[in-house]
Amino acid sequence: MLYYARAVVRCAAVMVLVLAGVAVADDKPGDLVEVAAVIPDAVIDLKYATDDNFAGEVLYPKGVCKLRRAVVTRLAKAAALLRAQDRRLLLWDCYRPTSVQQVLWDKASDRRYVANPKHGSRHSRGAAFDVALVDQDGAPVTLPTKFDEFSAAAHRTRALAGERGVEAKRLESAMKKAGFIGIPLEWWHFDAPDSAKYPLSNQPL
């Protein structure tokens, strides 16, 4: 009976280790996860889940902001820096299925602002996002431009200048400290430094 009891204990221990291994394996840095689950005070306002975007139509079935797990972990560091300055993240776009990227490409009047689906968007890799700021109560702050303004006013060097650029500069500083990279034409867009390692995805939201 003692031998049997020890065998049962050993089997149970093995099962615990196996299950733990599965849990760890499933918790991969490349998984797509919801930002709200990690940064609960982020304001999620996905413009492509509404018709308030340059395409003028609803392209997402729901306003769920997802990013690769490792990207969200990095974004949480930026959120903490901004929280200390009484600011919260306002997310306008996150992971974008490749099928939606194709729609945007087809509708874009100025394709400098939209990635060619043949090469893929970093949004479709779950490693890029469009972001602004609100105050600690979720109220608007002064921003250089609205989202998807395809004009010189949205270019990073111009958008971060002067009084209208104060909040954009605050955002830029936090994102850089967290390791994100901005792009020249859109002050609101940031990429993870290792975005190329994630595969393109058409996983639905």
Please tell me what the overall shape is: globular
CATH architecture of the largest domain: 2-Layer Sandwich
Question: Describe the biggest sheet?
Answer: 5 strands, mixed
Q: What is the ordering of alpha helices and beta strands?
A: HEHEEHEHEHHEE
Tell me the number of structural domains. 2
Rounded mean pLDDT score: 89
End-to-end distance, in Å? Answer: 54 Å
Low-pLDDT windows of residues: 1-26
Widest sheet: strand ordering: 2-4-5-7-6
Number of helices: 6
Regarding CATH, which class of the largest domain?
A: Alpha Beta
3D architecture notes:
- The chain has 205 residues and is α+β, with helices and mostly antiparallel strands.
- It has two domains: 1-30; 31-197, 2-Layer Sandwich (Muramoyl-pentapeptide Carboxypeptidase, domain 2).
- Helices cover 34% and strands 16% of the residues.
- The chain is globular.
- Mean pLDDT is 89; it is low at 1-26.
In short:
With 205 residues, the chain is an alpha+beta fold.
Helices and strands, with pairings:
Elements: H1 2-26, E1 32-34, H2 35-38, E2 43-44, E3 66-68, H3 69-83, E4 87-93, H4 98-107, E5 128-135, H5 156-159, H6 166-177, E6 181-183, E7 186-191
Parallel strand pairs: 2-4
Antiparallel strand pairs: 1-3, 4-5, 5-7, 6-7
Helix pairs in contact: 3-6
